[in-house]
Amino acid sequence: MESMSLPLISVLFLVAAAATWAAGITLAKTTDSLDTRFKIGEAMGGLILLGITGSLPEIAVVYSAARHGHIPVIIGTLVGGIAIQTLLIALFDFAVGRRRPLSYLAGTITLSLETVFAIAITAITLLATFIPARHTIFRTNPLSGVIVIAWVVGLFMINKARQNPRFNVVAEDAVPGRKHHHRRATENHAFYKGKSTRYVLLVFSFASLVTLAAGYLLEESGTAIANRLGIGTGIFAATVIALATSLPEISTGLESIFIGDNQLAISDIIGGNAFMLVMFLLGDIAAGKPVLSYAGRPVVWLGYLGIIMMLIYAVSFVAKLRRCYFRLGLDSVAQIVLYGVGVFIVAHLK
How far apart, in whole angstroms, are the C-alpha atoms of residue 84 and residue 175? Predict the structure, then answer.
């Protein structure tokens, strides 16, 4: 893209973002349909499938960046993306309305445990940034594999907790909506009712290919834009690219909020935060080097910011604060202020 003008590259970036949005929505709906047809929604395999399909844009960005040696883009998209994805919960809180904060309507001990689990995975990831690049296991960061193992074990434990009524107690006037193990109970997308399984699989495969292609284009055009504007590629990836790859989560999260599945909207965001970090192993393998060992200070600070933001929600899911301020709970107000201040500070770090 070196020969293209900045306006043309920007148009390509916007087209890729739009394709990510549209294909991501289709992926969510077809995955719902396939989970219902094959009855895997409550199984570990089903949860892993959902994590992979929901993170296809990030997978494409990571692979493309690794193959082109754009290591800061990988770290920025995955580590920096945690803070911006957590910020989406504040958007969902605003969409709920003025009656009660989203954390009050959906908060349970299970949701708090999920958040603590995502914080633990993030902490392991940040620890990996302190390991020198010369210390590797099969040319990967030693903790990249630990992240994957911790994610699988944690996923199993969280799935067990979701099915325990003691951990799912909500306030008397709360509106949690469907839980994860109820989400595939019915095929709720009318467009796929009456369609053959082969048809749904074809649509799913096409949407997956579009998402992968769009993710590749996001990485290529995003890196070019950052270089033309003189912005660090890591910071650009942690903000703009991370937001673009989160567009499907915005759409499906808002859809969940509008039909009353408040707990599901939050859980998908927190679960996505944990799964994104699993992809560092893919980045290590594709790049042939321990990606996290090359993390710069600004993006690492964004990782700490993500931990603080998730910690606030982990507490609020249990504390259940009732008051709203400008259609937002106090926790969401704190997230917006924290993210704004955090990005400002990180932008001025050297």
Answer: 25
- Amino acid identity of residue 241, one-letter, is I
Distance CA 169, CA 53 (A): 30
Number of helices (H), then strands (E), belonging to the chain: the values are 16, 2
Going along the chain from its start, the domains and CATH numbers come out as: 6-347 (1.20.1420.30)
Which residues of the chain have a pLDDT value below 70?
2, 35, 39-50, 172-193, 350
Per 3-state DSSP, the chain is made up of helix, strand and coil in percentages (nearest 5) of 75, 0, 20
Q: Which of 299, 289, 293 is nearest to 235 (CA)?
A: 299
- pLDDT value at position 185? 47
Alpha-carbon span 142 to 138, nearest angstrom:
9
Q: Look at the chain and count its residues.
A: 350
Q: Which residue has the tokens 């955090």?
A: 342
Q: Is 95 within 8 Å of 321 (Cβ atoms)?
A: no
Q: What distance in Å separates the CA atoms of residue 309 and residue 296, rounded to the nearest whole number?
A: 20
C-alpha span between 190 and 195 (Å, rounded)? 10
Q: Are 72 and 299 in contact (CB under 8 A)?
A: yes
3-state class (DSSP) for residue 324: strand
pLDDT tens-place string over residues 243-302? 998 888 888 888 878 878 888 888 888 988 999 999 999 999 999 999 999 998 888 999
DSSP per-residue codes, 60-81: HHHHHHHHTT-HHHHHIIIIIH
pTM of the model: 0.88
Q: Rounded to a whole number, what is the distance in angstroms from the first to the last CA of the chain?
A: 28
Helix (H) or strand (E) holding 24: helix 6-38
The tokens describing 250, both together, are 């915005």
- d(CA 77, CA 99) in angstroms, rounded, equals 35
Residue with token string 């259609």: 327
With contact defined as beta carbons under 8 Å apart, do 186 and 168 qualify? no
* Rounded-to-integer distance, Cα 239 and Cα 145, Å: 26
- The enclosing H or E element of 208 equals helix 197-229
